[in-house]
Amino acid sequence: MTQSWSLFRELLFPLVLEAAVVRVEPAGPVVRVEVRSTADGANCPGCGAWSSRVHGSYLRSPADLPSAGRWVVLALRVRRFTCPDRSCPRRTFVEQIEGLTRRHGQSTERLRSAVTAVGLALAGRAGERMVRLLGLHGSRSTLLRRVMEMPDLPVGAPTAIGVDDFALRKGHVYGTVIIDAVIHRVLDLLPERDAATLGPWLADHPQVEVICRDRASAYAEAADAAAPQARQIADRYHLWHNLTQAVERTVLDHRSCLHSLPVIESEPEPQWETPLPIDSGTDIEEKAEKPTDPTGRMADRRTAHHALVHELLERGMSMREVARHLGWSRNSVRRYAHAARWQDMMKDRRPRSSKLDPFKPYLAQRWDETGGRITIRVLFEEITARGYRGGRTLLAQWKRQALIAPDSAPPPPPPPSIRQVTGWLARHPAGLTLDEEVQRKAVLAHCQELDTAAGLVTSFAEMLTRLEGERLTEWITEAMTSGLPGISTFAAGLNTDYDAVHAGLTTHWNSGPVEGTVNRIKMLKRQMYGRAGFALLRKRVLCCG
User: Fold this and answer.
1) Are 28 and 72 within 8 A, CB to CB?
2) Assigned CATH class of 160-235+510-543
3) Backbone CA torsion sign across 476, 478, 480, 485
């Protein structure tokens, strides 16, 4: 009993300075702790007058955090005081112990805080399961009430904000999220994404100097009307996304060029030269000197790249600087840097054995016997009975090859799709494979309009990555006079939002933190399974930090 009393005194007394633990009584799964207040008096909650005149006392039994797997219930002796101010509407009042109780509360403040934290993290049903596992008290409705009772964090006086929309019901209902662009903290969630909703919020915060946004007209109108002092920044990601859509419309308008495109020969795989077998009539040293390196254009390319990377590294440049100088990814530079020889960058493409190889003679025999009228299912059952342990995919590939006559020419490859060509034009050249690079050159050589579009895309990409916004006017003029429907429309749109676009291409501000917040909102929405409303979602986003 003495050890239990000491343990609970150490746990309770530091948090409850105005109370004293009188006795601890363990009774099965419940521990009853008798507590009384040691204060001389209390302030009246109505008028604030101090009173030490005791009117009476009674017991309260608030639940507390569990300890050692047992529920803890406090037997708290509280006093009722008489208010000395006769003009106060309260004749008597009950003392509250700060940090432990509140009026009409059935649990201690620290138990309340623990339940609130679980509700913020997991919401209703999942939170209820976690509360039971932790030995706390609270139903799913209690958890949600605790979350909704939390006060909103103060917005403060942000000088730079980020604004973006998020889906409450995708394709139908959208809201607006506002974050502090400096510390990346969520400031508020609005139930709509129009100017009438964002405008009043901006009017209440006149200290805002920077607004990072996408290219939606509603946010631009709200910023122009309610925050004329703020500088609007068009996000670079959305600019590039809009340009990609414009390139796709341009490729779609010139899809006839793709259908009349001549057959594009793929880049041949590197050929590995195999040395001849050594026999008694051959000089061993002469045969050992035979080259075994791969040949072809891919091998030449890898040789040049390997030499270039190692030359730059020998000059004292870091891998990051080499990647920035060449416009490559750091992973590509790292692979070349760690390869002692350029041959280590080549992949050996020698034919590999297949699980189906031992059964191909039997399959060919059965195919000839049935005249090609046997099904995959029957063949699969027959070779499985003979020990085949593979899947039907290899068998289907073998059948497709068997249907092709040996003396017939393979069918011509289909023309590249609109999405493929759009990717070739919008992606960085260093991210293209060798085959994609060959096909891209063939498309641009065949269609002059797409070659012009590729030049405009490259120029805009350099302007965007290097923050060279001073070239924007020149680029818009060149794009609008190019006669390309999609890109000309995109350039005209940039002209109508010139100030924000120019600021986005010359400053470091962007909407990246806002996009990360939108992803977190999606996660919280999935936790609530669409059963909760906007108020609960807003509270969880704001109070989760």
Assistant:
1) no
2) alpha beta
3) negative
DSSP three-state, residue 290:
coil
Please name every residue paired with 27 in a beta bridge, in sequence order, or none if there are none: 30
pLDDT at 241: 92
Spatial distance between the Cα atoms of 233 and 161, rounded to a whole number of angstroms: 10
pLDDT digits (tens, 9 = 90+) for 248-271: 999 999 888 888 777 665 555 455
What six digits make up the tokens of 5? 């009393």
Of 277 and 427, which is predicted with more confidence? 427
| Long-range contacts of 111-119, Cβ-Cβ distance < 8 Å, separation of 24 or more | 111/62, 111/63, 111/64, 111/65, 111/136, 111/137, 112/146, 114/65, 115/142, 115/143, 115/146, 116/143, 116/146, 116/147, 116/149, 116/150, 118/143, 119/143, 119/144, 119/146, 119/147
| Maximum alpha-carbon separation in the chain | 126
Pair type for strands 92-94 and 210-213 = unpaired
Choice among 128-142, 345-359, 493-507 with the minimum mean pLDDT:
345-359
Q: Which tokens belong to 130? A: 């976690």
Reported as a pLDDT band with limits 50, 70 and 90, residue 17 is very low
Model confidence at 2, pLDDT cuts 50, 70, 90, reads very low
* Residue 64 amino acid letter: D
Question: In this structure, what token pair is assigned to residue 321?
Answer: 């600087």
In angstroms, the Cα distances linking 136 to 115, 322, 370 are 7, 57, 72
Spell out the alpha helix ranges (H) of 427-545: 434-446, 448-465, 472-480, 485-496, 498-504, 512-528, 534-543
Question: Domain residue spans in the chain?
Answer: 2-106, 111-149, 160-235+510-543, 238-264+415-504, 285-345, 357-402
